[in-house]
Amino acid sequence: MKTAPAWVDRQRYPFTSRWLTIDDNELHYIDEGKGDVILFVHGTPEWSFAYRDVVKALRDSFRCVAIDLLGFGLSDKAPGEFYTCAAHSQRLEKFIQQLDLKNITIVANDFGGSIAMRYVLDHPENINRIVLSNTWMRSLKNEPHYARPARLIRTLLGKFLYVTLNAPVNTIMPAAYGDKKKLTKQNHQHYKHALPRGSRKGPYGFGLEMSHANEWWQGLWERLDTVRDKPFLFFWGMKDSFVLPAELNHWKLKLPYAQYIAFDDAGHFVQEEKPEAMAAGIRTFLTTR
């Protein structure tokens, strides 16, 4: 029977590891608690570990399911071209089908936002509520803040930074925190160990998507009005240096009736910096009609 590697700290991540085979690849996930389903979908360079404290706080009342996307965490690190947002979204749909998840509340961040929202847009009848943080779902190709690093990632230097030096974990992740002290050495190691050398196609694939996924994102964005009556809750770290606070304004224009909670002292990874506040906000959101 497959088990989690020894480097996983069971005090920090006290969950039963499970795997599901989808398209000949084994995807790792956790499934904790009972009640209404909350499905957590991470971004880069994360895995389900990122939501550990939120899951701990909510599993007494909800069924918390958190997936490791292909190429991340304890899921397979398959070779080949499996790492587009569209491909991740297709696997997520199969994951939901195989686990027979119903009346789902989505919680997603970063690249996970659009991956999860594709399911929301295609299957609104199976969605209860949506919780998003520091994410986007529109074309970014004409914005220099995103276009410049996207061009770099496509170069040999960019590939070296991602694949050899593990820049998403070693450089970008620490820089994206609002409070750098929140990224402890022990927690950081859980992201480093999950992406050893030779197994970094997942984050590199996401990096390339900054150039290649813009039409896909824009297509989803243009469909957002079809689910605008669904209950949305946004958490936003205002010190995010990657997905700028201005992105929140685009969401507000599209979803004026959504709820928004901003943290002036948090950065990109709200679930790491403000897990207690996030869990409390989600609990209130799901129990208030």
Automatic annotation (TrEMBL):
UniProt feature coiled coil, ranges: none
Keyword Oxidoreductase: yes
Pfam families: Abhydrolase_1
GO molecular function: hydrolase activity; oxidoreductase activity
Alphabetically ordered keywords of this record: Hydrolase, Oxidoreductase
Stretches assigned to the AB hydrolase-1 domain: 37-275
UniProt entry tagged with the keyword Hydrolase: yes
PANTHER family: CIS-3-ALKYL-4-ALKYLOXETAN-2-ONE DECARBOXYLASE (PTHR43798:SF24), MONOACYLGLYCEROL LIPASE (PTHR43798)
Protein name: Alpha/beta fold hydrolase
Provenance organism: Chryseolinea lacunae
